[in-house]
Each structure stands twice: as C-alpha cells, then as structure tokens.
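Tutorial handout. Part one gives the primary structure; part two gives the three-dimensional structure as tokens.
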Amino acid sequence: GDVACRINGTAAIDAALAADGLADAAREESPCLGQCDHGAAALVQSVGKPRRTIRATAGAAEPVVVGSTLLRRIGVVDPTSIESYRAAGGFEALHRAHQIGSQEVIDEVSAANLRGRGGAAFPTGFKWQAVADQPNGPKYVVANADESEPGTFKDRVLMEGDPFALVEGLAIAGLATGARKGFIYIRGEYPTAIELLESAIRQTREAGSFGADFDMELRVGAGAYICGEETALFNSLEGFRGEPRQKPPFPTTHGLFQQPTAINNPETLLNVLDIVTDGGAAYAASGTEGSNGQKLFCLSGHVTAPGTYEVEFGPTLREMIDVAGGVTGGELKAVLLGGAAGSFVGPDLFDMPLTMEATRAAGASLGSGVIMAFNEHTDFEAVCIRIAEFFKNESCGQCVPCRVGAVRQHELLIRSKGKVMNGELQLLEDMDRVMKDASICGLGHTASTAVRSAISLGLIGAN
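Part two.
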C-alpha cells in the first residue's frame, strides 16, 4: 500500500493472488515491502508454510553499468553455493584481512574514506577504530539489514543475489574491531534473503572460514521501521521493545548488550571487500573528493526500468533517471530523493550531482539511495498523505513530540485536503520544529521533511 506500489502494479498482484488460489484470502494493506523494483508486491503467509513474496514484475536486479563492483556477482554466482562464491573470488578479502591484521584493515578503510551507505554517512574507519580501541572484553559487529525505508531495496538485491559477500564483510568487521560475535538483523518481510543468509552462514561456518575466534547469527525482525535505528535495533536484538536509546553514550562504547559495537548496513560492508583487496587509496580515487567509491541507487516510480543501479558517485539526478529508461506517462514533475524520510526535489535540481556534498549544499540528502520519480499527472496530495500516514503508524510512541506530532501532521493533511488554509502551514512548521528539536531519534527529526518540501515546491498546499 505504499507509494511505489500505488503507482504501479497493484492490479497485477490481484491477478497473481487469484491465480495462486488466494483470491479470497484475508488481506491487509502493508507498508513498503522493499520490492519497489517490481512495481507492486504482496507478502504471503500461510499456516504451516514459509513466508513468500509475490511480485508484479521481474524488475531489474542485474548490473547495468560497465565496471560494476558491488553488483558484479549478481546473476553470475549461485547464491546458494559457497563453492560458486569462492570460484568468483569469494573470501579472498577475508583471507587478506587475516594476513595484514586488524589495524591495517582499519587503516585501509579509513584511507578509502568509506562513509556509511545507510543515510547518516558516518565514516566507517572512524567507527571501527573507536570500537577496536575499547578495552578487551565482549565486542559485537552488526549488519543492519532492516531495510524498511519506503522506496529502498538495494540491500535486498545484495542479500538475495550475493549473500556470502555480506557474511564475509561482517566477518572482516569482526576481525578489525576485535569482536568475536556478529549478528545480521534482517526485516521479516524478506523471506528469500533470510533463507539464503541462513544457508550462507551455515556453509561458511562448516567450511571453517570464520576461524576459531568468530561466529555470527541471523536475527529476524517483526516489521518495525523504527528498528532500522541502530539503538532500537539493539533493544530488539536483546529481546526488548524496539525503542531508540538516548545518545550519548554511543554504540561504539555502549551498543549491543551495553558493549562496544560497530553497526553497518549491507552496502557499506560489501564496499569493504574491495577496499581490503585493492587498498584504500585505489578506492578513494574513485567517485568525487567528498563522496568516494561506488553507490547503489534504487530507481522506482514512473521510470521505464525500475531497479538497483550502481555508479560511481557523481552522475546527475537527470542522468540516473535516463539510465533507468526515462520517465513514463508524462513529463518528470518531481523526484522523492532519499525515501519517505528524504525530500522532494524539483526541476531546478534535476542536474544536481548525486554526491553527499552536492545534496547537502542543496538542502537535500541521498539518504538510503532512493530515487522515486513522479510524472506531471501524480496526485501529490495522496502521496504526501500516505507518507504522513507511514510516519504516524511507524512512530514507536516513546517520545511525545514524535508520537503526537506525526499524528497531527497526518490529520492536518487530511483536513486541509492538501491546501494551506487557516494558518495550517504555520501549525505544520511549528510541529516540524518541535519534532526536530525534541524527538529522541531520526524518525521524528525527518517525519515532516518530505511534506514540507512538497509544499515548498508547490506540489501541495496551493490555495
């Protein structure tokens, strides 16, 4: 029921359910299932059977640019076979990491200037060094695969097509930081990825590739967007309600089980493999001065070929949409950049380079790599109401500004029917300011960002 599904493919899903004998099954509209490259999708749960996903279209998951790095094994390597992964160079990076030692691994990652690909863009080497510098004792590494940002599906593509690479990347993180235990925390709506990762972890352990001093587990979330926030994820892993913690202290000193913890998303960890094998300097030479290396973008919405696209940092927004075949159904009106927590950008930014520094200067953000295109015929009022509804539903309720503000924002948009009247714009601005200043975590900080940007572009709110 989220934005990309409402734009494309819902009728095809209804037909697929009917053909599968599920036309009369109980149905419930869900938030984004991370299948936006397939137009629309349904998560099917049957008594006594494993979860599975029905997709409207095949999507575009394979590499689409020459020199693809992160996606190069997708469609080439058998994701169920450790032998196939090894034949494609798998575990060479982990072997080299053991040869050069933990500190040199961190030094190479720092030299690469690798920044987190989950949205915060925090320097990975700095994070790993901070954990490594903590006194001897329990330490943990965590892969945050709770990919719940509407419009985001890049990590799903990696995990379904190249699961051993994530396992290897997390093992390298463990070696670098001195952690002896790793966890992959994955959203429960990714049944295929869950099955493949469980198999990859088991095969890697049985092959002895972890070594004697490290092991990892897969943990499955229960469908809470808030658990993508790192401290809420830790609470969930520990068996508590998924609510963010106050910071400081930070995860590098008080993370999982209150122990030093390094947490990265799958795309970040896959970048580490080539940094270790080729060196940080070679990695830093690609991309731009402030945005090094490769980036995965999730193209969806009104584009000809939705999918995961890999490029070096630097192409413009317009160029990325052209790579995905251009806009369908009319002229390009606006792009939602960064997902529901991101912002709408208009024609004046279509030629903006997709780098961290350029988007920051423009008051936008790359976020999780979402590029959702909308043509001139889009009902932006409905889109913004759905985004507001998402944040209302997904707020954990722990802090008052977010718990109340997200609800009031949704009510305001419904009441005003997308128009600005009777001082409601001022009310929205006041709520946005309070949520940004006083919410515990990023959910409250960004709950109004997309709506405010839509108003500023005149997509909604015209009297």
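Part three, for discussion. The chain has a mean pLDDT of 93. The chain has 19 helices and eleven strands.
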